[in-house]
Write a sequence for this structure.
């Protein structure tokens, strides 16, 4: 089966330190201060990344709207997500509210982003 | 995803992963890539969680996501999570939660709680194995002593299997992708055997973060869904994260 895999290649070597066409860059580092109130912990990260987060969520909504035209499903999910938030445990609920507030993304979108794993395990 | 926990000849533990995400979430024909995979790359951040100006744990996250998918508690343990697909999946857990059954834990919140509160490999292992979940998962855990490494296969309610490192029996590495270890992977998605073959080729005496990066750079372990590669060593909580790209020809998953 391995021999028949058209994408299979021989084991790579000497690829480290990363460079070349399989390397796309490093990532920025942030400190999350757990001594701050949960609502404020993610402010630095989200000030820098709000545009990127909104772009991802908009694309997911666009995808949903392609399957269910008219945006009714996407709107319904958003409303349900806001309801779900109130049942999430401390301090996660407050952290999610803080992220939505700082980023300007809708609360429903940020809840959905945080429970994506549970949705996608089928 | 592909996660690797491995021990070198001196007993030092290494832990690394490729985070793959975005399957079927839109295909960008122009760039020959998954849309969401590409959009997630600018969201990847390295985080240091501090209390009293001291780093308690580190993680690699998507900005806006407060759970943990890859993290290290310096000097104590390393942890990654791989997605486990099941008919009895997380959507049922969400439904139960909405209907009022709330004794399960959201996956990302559990890994976050473990990294934040557990102070040893054993404590982390117990919490990951015994806490009821909303969705199935694979937890890959590494410790700070020789032999401390395992893959915990979880259904929502129970631990189905704990697969430990066993140096005496020649098991110096564990590779977990997205399939139960006692079952063959889907024939269209076999990343497990190429990763194992490359690790066997490297041999235990040559194991390092650099050689593990080689494994995670080999197609199809590296594929069109790969967002980032994280390398971790528990000593000092060392982590390195790199965004990835898979140039053609490259497996779409």
């Amino acid at each position: 089966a391995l021999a028949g895999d058209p994408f299979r290649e021989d084991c790579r070597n000497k690829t480290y330190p990363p460079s070349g066409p399989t390397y796309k860059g490093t990532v920025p580092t942030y400190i999350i201060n757990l001594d701050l109130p949960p609502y404020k912990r993610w402010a630095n990260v989200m000030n820098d990344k709000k545009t990127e987060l909104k772009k991802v969520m908009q694309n997911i909504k666009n995808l949903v709207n392609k399957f269910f035209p008219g945006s009714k499903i996407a709107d319904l999910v958003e409303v349900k997500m806001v309801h779900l938030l109130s049942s999430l445990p401390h301090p996660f609920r407050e952290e999610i509210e803080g992220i939505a507030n700082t980023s300007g993304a809708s609360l429903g979108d940020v809840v959905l982003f945080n429970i994506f794993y549970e949705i996608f395990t089928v | 995803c592909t996660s690797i926990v491995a021990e070198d000849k001196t007993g030092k533990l290494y832990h690394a992963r490729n985070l793959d995400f975005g399957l079927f979430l839109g295909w960008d024909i122009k760039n020959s890539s998954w849309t969401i995979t590409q959009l997630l790359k600018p969201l990847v951040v390295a985080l240091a969680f501090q209390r009293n100006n001291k780093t308690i744990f580190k993680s690699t996250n998507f900005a806006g996501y407060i759970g943990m998918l890859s993290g290290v508690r310096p000097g104590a343990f390393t942890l990654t999570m791989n997605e486990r697909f099941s008919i009895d999946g997380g959507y049922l857990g969400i439904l139960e939660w909405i209907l009022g059954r709330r004794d399960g834990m959201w996956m990302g919140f559990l890994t976050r709680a473990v990294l934040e509160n557990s102070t040893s490999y054993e404590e982390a292992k117990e919490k990951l194995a015994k806490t009821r979940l909303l969705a199935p998962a694979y937890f890959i855990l590494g410790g700070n002593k020789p032999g401390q490494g395992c893959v915990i296969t979880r259904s929502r309610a129970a631990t189905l299997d704990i697969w430990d490192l066993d140096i005496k029996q020649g098991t110096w590495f564990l590779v977990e992708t997205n399939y139960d270890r006692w079952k063959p992977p889907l024939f269209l998605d076999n990343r497990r055997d190429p990763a194992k073959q490359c690790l066997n080729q490297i041999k235990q005496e040559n194991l390092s973060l650099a050689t593990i990066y080689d494994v995670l750079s080999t197609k199809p372990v590296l594929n069109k869904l790969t967002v980032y590669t994280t390398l971790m060593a528990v000593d000092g909580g060392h982590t390195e994260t790199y965004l990835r790209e898979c140039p053609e020809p490259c497996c779409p998953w």
